[in-house]
Amino acid sequence: MNARRPAEGAETPRSTYREALREGLREALRGDERVFLMGEDVGRYGGCFGVSLGLLEEFGPDRIRDTPLSESAFVGAGIGAALGGLRPVVEIMTVNFSLLALDQVLNNAATLLHMSGGQLNVPVVIRMTTGAGRQLGAQHSHSLEGWYAHIPGIRVLTPATVDDARHMLAAALDDPDPVVLFEHGSLYNEEGALDTAIRSVSLDSAAVRRAGTDVSVITYGGSLPKALAAAEELAGDGIDAEVVDLRSLRPLDDATVTESVARTHRAVIVDEGWRSGSISGEISARITEQSFYDLDAPVQRVCSQEVPIPYARQLEEAALPQPASIVAAVRQAVA
Amino acid sequence: MGEFTMPSLGADMDEGTLVEWLVAEGGEVARGDVVAVVETAKSTIEVECFESGTITELLVEPGTTVPVGTPLAVIGPTASRGRAPSAAPAPVLTGPALTTPLVRHQAAEEGVDLQAVHGSGMGGRITREDVSRAAHPAPARITASPLARRLAESLGVDLASVKGTGSRGAIKADDVRAAAGAAGEGPAPAAPAERAAPAGPPPPPAGTRAAPPPGDRLAIARLMTRAKREIPHYYLSTVIDLASALEWMRTENGARQVADRLVPAALLLKAVALAAREVPELNGHWSDDRFVPATGVRLGTAVSLRGGGLVAPALADADRMPLPELMATLKDLVARARHGRLRASETADPTLTVTNLGDQGVETVFGVIYPPQVAMVGLGRVTDRPVAVDGMLAVHPTVTATLSADHRASDGADGSRFLTALDRLLQHPEDL
């Protein structure tokens, strides 16, 4: 892993998504004794994607804990630690492997507050990688965050910018209930200007990343850079696209989407998940429910092909939403 | 070989929508025939052609909006043998339509012309279903976006008359805005809520058009705003004693068939037309910073439409038309205006307009002048009032006549002369 450590003590104006996540972890570990990180290879190896590189040396093995290869066991342990008063951050290597822990997430983390009659909050934060684009094969490349967004009782976050990567963790740890945070694998090396004026972020609102008047491109996570690239290309043709970054898939910020569609009258949803039964379907349904009389064209969706994500580069690229397919969908919406 | 073009049906008309062709390619037309229905921002109008011949080609599809002067159809010499090569020959049915006696009976019962029915049965035979379909055509479902439907309702636009430019021909918001009055006024005005069109009036029966015509409220709004912005109005008013006029009318009507009887409005209109001839400063148009007096009196008569909105068809030569003829023309005009069936020649530029709110019960109306006209005469309710006659108090039928006039074209003295003339004319109804 080619993670670079930021210069000691200096406030770097630019940061990679990975460095921003690490800074967020470091700040949480420094600021609250109860916070600790656990997961596969998070310690000595520095994290499968290099996010926790150097944290073991800084915070020691009690707070940066390598775990056995058993998602169900260590997620369950994290839930137990949260119930016991700690503030665990549990890292799962990819969302595909998180399915082994789904029982813990759904039947325990998301449900205990309800089952205990409001007595037991579960303040656990579960981080995991999602998404394709790096030729890691079908078992490491899927986008299942939409499945998690189906579950009441948890919050589902999808940081897409370095600012959100830097600050969402603190806000997630402040939440007394379980938070699942999806880091898109293709974003780790993305570099952006870190806004040093930002001290904290809200988890409840979507963000308009690019204002526009002709169409609302609604997306999140790893598809945000693609949507912004598509918007730039469309601008060259005089189509002014607004790009909405959902940031949170549960709860969904309906107000921002509704306001955007009220301005543009057209919506294109970009979601790396499969189309059938997806979060994009949920967003489309809500637009129809809440913005029907504002729509001047059918809602369009750009999703992944409904196949296991292929390993071969060309096939993988063809299976995923790309700027070109977003541009094509927008053209259809504004035609 | 001639062209039938989009006519100018008013001074402020720069485009019109072809709503319906009343002729087909290959059909013969004579000068003066009504060949098409055109919708302007103000109303829906039947348009005559000025040439005789054969329609060799229809150039514009119904629903299309084109600028004034755009060729709509090509009229060739009357076809005797052979057709103009460019004209696609319409399929011609020869001989009796293939069908059974039972179907012929059904067609006769339902009033269906079998020659016009497409046979879907074996060998092109017309079936009972074909006849039923022809007798009760299913209304076509209009494909329109939700926003377009919402806009159409708030702008009073009939979606059936809008051509969609979206995918699968869907009507989009922009199409509705264009239909609502074009002029590219940018975004739609924020909720013209006063329209409050009753949700979903039933579609008009075939052959008539919905009143008010689409876009009509917006057109009125624009025209009236322009009038109040550009025209320095001045207003005069006088009460006219109608005792002798109505007495004369009663005597006159006694000798007439009920259908031919006069109404006070006819007398008033005739008197207005004659007064306009006496005071030409009020009869004409303001254009290019000067007043152009008209040669005859084309008296615009504001007719309010049942569904809201109004049109002002013109009574041509109102000053020279004998009263009975004026009465008949007026009846016909009002009836057809309310059915949206006015002819082009009837809406072309009145030289002076009268608004009569008498039947609405008000006593006085100060109208807003229709540009480019320079005056508007207002007539209120004919009502009994105490009047002084030869030093005695009497109760006579009276009417309040008002004049709104354009101060650029005339002065108060001209306006006074007009109202005085109107009063004098109405005291001698036998000369009207």
UniProtKB/TrEMBL annotation, chain A:
SUPFAM superfamilies associated with the record: Thiamin diphosphate-binding fold (THDP-binding), TK C-terminal domain-like
The superkingdom listed in its UniProt entry is Bacteria
Transmembrane regions: none
Q: Which cofactor does it need?
A: thiamine diphosphate
Annotated Transketolase-like pyrimidine-binding domain ranges read 15-190
Gene Ontology terms, MF aspect: magnesium ion binding; oxidoreductase activity
Annotated InterPro entries: THDP-binding, Transketo_C/PFOR_II, Transketolase-like_Pyr-bd, Transketolase_C
Task: Provide this UniProt record's keywords sorted from A to Z.
Answer: Oxidoreductase, Pyruvate, Thiamine pyrophosphate
Q: Per its record, how is this protein called by name?
A: Pyruvate dehydrogenase
UniProtKB/TrEMBL annotation, chain B:
Q: Which CDD domains match?
A: lipoyl_domain
Q: Which residue stretches belong to region Disordered?
A: 182-215
A Gene Ontology cellular component where this protein is annotated is: cytoplasm
Locations of Pro residues compositional bias?
Answer: 199-215
**Molecular-function annotations in GO:** acetyltransferase activity; lipoic acid binding
Q: What Enzyme Commission number(s) does the record list for this chain?
A: 2.3.1.-
Q: What is this protein called?
A: Dihydrolipoamide acetyltransferase component of pyruvate dehydrogenase complex
